[in-house]
């Protein structure tokens, strides 16, 4: 019975991480890069998957062994650093959640023709309902699993319908005609950046899966999360590649919707609505849960009222979207900050991995994971800094 319960939590954490990553931005990002790079985008996916696994294993293992949340680890490494990281995560999570709420509204608009604002309110109500249940953690796990599997099935159907050149995609994955470093960095940041990095790790900690003895389970859950997100990415890539290879033009205003519609007609367009809705609601839940988990250490009352704070987080995100709309400048800044959050948080985790104050005296962090981690920190810091410098003038224009 115990093993069955553990598997439920492990898969729940994996799907929470994966579905947090697969939001409206993920769908658009994958489609746009496929349109630009064609079959060579397969190579970008391959490299990003390897880097993603390295990031998640580093972070989740250190959280499990230290038995501390990321902000507490950071404060142990350097007093005050945890508060700074928490502020970045929460502000970034709120900004992106406004976009997630908007994506959910778009999903309802496609399915039922209602306004995006009304759809957003309904989606928020569904997300809030998850946290009104007594055992919200278990409901969240199961909801993420069901929505994740639904997205995979629908995207696989559209990929098959679009008849992509699979042979060319496989060949270009290993021998690309073009390599786009910015695309790799964007994918890594979009899959394991910001709050997403910690979604599954914090969920496992809350569920009591921690300590060195739990590392095999932690490894399995981390790799499973990246695998689920990657399966969705790969089949969405194949669906888009099939459409692009036929010389069909995608609608610049909504590229992923174009892929579904051009591949499977009106039915495909409705399926896009289901996928967008599933991706957006699960991202709303993941962003709210993980963002609030970064505040739990600062006062007992926060931990005691966690679900109500999560609900408040969702309500605020929805009100901003409904009353103001998607705040473009805020989202631009959040996107730039997201590129910087990963190197700061992952860098902190790597330092902590070799700190006896954090990890104890018996744990030895794998050298290969450290090398992967340092590589990601350096690349993401350079690209995140470049993006921030490029976009800051637009914020004050």
TrEMBL record:
<feature type="transmembrane region" description="Helical">
    <location>
        <begin position="146"/>
        <end position="175"/>
    </location>
</feature>
<dbReference type="InterPro" id="IPR001046">
    <property type="entry name" value="NRAMP_fam"/>
</dbReference>
<dbReference type="Pfam" id="PF01566">
    <property type="entry name" value="Nramp"/>
</dbReference>
<feature type="transmembrane region" description="Helical">
    <location>
        <begin position="36"/>
        <end position="55"/>
    </location>
</feature>
<feature type="transmembrane region" description="Helical">
    <location>
        <begin position="330"/>
        <end position="355"/>
    </location>
</feature>
<dbReference type="GO" id="GO:0034755">
    <property type="term" value="P:iron ion transmembrane transport"/>
</dbReference>
<dbReference type="GO" id="GO:0005384">
    <property type="term" value="F:manganese ion transmembrane transporter activity"/>
</dbReference>
<keyword id="KW-0472">Membrane</keyword>
<feature type="transmembrane region" description="Helical">
    <location>
        <begin position="181"/>
        <end position="201"/>
    </location>
</feature>
<feature type="transmembrane region" description="Helical">
    <location>
        <begin position="76"/>
        <end position="98"/>
    </location>
</feature>
<protein>
    <submittedName>
        <fullName>Mn2+ and Fe2+ transporters of the NRAMP family</fullName>
    </submittedName>
</protein>
<feature type="transmembrane region" description="Helical">
    <location>
        <begin position="307"/>
        <end position="324"/>
    </location>
</feature>
<feature type="transmembrane region" description="Helical">
    <location>
        <begin position="269"/>
        <end position="295"/>
    </location>
</feature>
<keyword id="KW-0812">Transmembrane</keyword>
<dbReference type="GO" id="GO:0005886">
    <property type="term" value="C:plasma membrane"/>
</dbReference>
<dbReference type="GO" id="GO:0015086">
    <property type="term" value="F:cadmium ion transmembrane transporter activity"/>
</dbReference>
<keyword id="KW-1133">Transmembrane helix</keyword>
<feature type="transmembrane region" description="Helical">
    <location>
        <begin position="367"/>
        <end position="389"/>
    </location>
</feature>
<feature type="transmembrane region" description="Helical">
    <location>
        <begin position="222"/>
        <end position="249"/>
    </location>
</feature>
<feature type="transmembrane region" description="Helical">
    <location>
        <begin position="110"/>
        <end position="134"/>
    </location>
</feature>
């Amino acid at each position: 019975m115990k093993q069955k319960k553990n598997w439920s939590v492990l898969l729940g954490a994996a799907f929470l991480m994966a579905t947090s990553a697969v939001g409206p931005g993920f769908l658009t990002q994958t489609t746009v890069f496929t349109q630009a790079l064609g079959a060579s985008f397969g190579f970008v996916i391959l490299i990003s998957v390897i880097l993603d696994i390295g990031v998640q294993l580093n972070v989740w293992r250190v959280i499990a062994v230290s038995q501390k949340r990321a902000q507490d680890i950071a404060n142990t490494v350097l007093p005050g650093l945890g508060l700074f990281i928490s502020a970045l995560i929460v502000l970034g999570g709120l900004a992106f959640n406004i976009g997630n709420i908007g994506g959910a509204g778009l999903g309802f608009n496609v399915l039922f023709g209602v306004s995006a604002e009304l759809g957003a309110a309904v989606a928020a109500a569904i997300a809030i309902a998850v946290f009104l249940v007594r055992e919200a953690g278990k409901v969240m796990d199961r909801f993420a699993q069901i929505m994740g599997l639904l997205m995979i099935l629908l995207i696989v159907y559209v990929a098959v319908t679009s008849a992509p050149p699979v042979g060319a995609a496989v060949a270009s994955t290993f021998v690309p005609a073009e390599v786009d470093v910015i695309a790799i960095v964007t994918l890594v940041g979009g899959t394991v950046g910001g709050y997403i990095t910690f979604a599954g790790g914090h969920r496992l900690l809350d569920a009591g899966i921690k300590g060195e003895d739990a590392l095999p389970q932690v490894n399995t859950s981390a790799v499973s999360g990246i695998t689920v997100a990657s399966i969705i990415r790969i089949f969405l890539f194949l669906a888009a590649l099939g459409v692009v290879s036929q010389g069909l033009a995608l609608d610049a205003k909504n590229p992923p919707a174009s892929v579904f519609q051009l591949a499977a007609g009106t039915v495909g367009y409705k399926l896009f609505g289901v996928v967008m809705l599933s991706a957006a609601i699960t991202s709303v839940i993941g962003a709210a849960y993980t963002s609030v988990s970064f505040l739990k250490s600062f006062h007992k009352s926060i931990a005691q009222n966690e679900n109500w704070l999560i609900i408040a987080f969702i309500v605020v995100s929805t009100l901003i979207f409904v009353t103001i709309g998607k705040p473009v400048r805020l989202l631009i800044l959040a996107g730039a900050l997201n590129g910087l959050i990963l190197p700061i948080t992952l860098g902190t985790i790597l330092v902590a991995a070799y700190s006896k104050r954090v990890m104890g005296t018996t744990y030895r962090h794998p050298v290969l994971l450290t090398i992967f981690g340092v590589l990601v920190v350096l690349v993401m810091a350079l690209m995140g800094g470049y993006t921030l410098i490029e976009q800051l003038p637009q914020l004050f224009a």
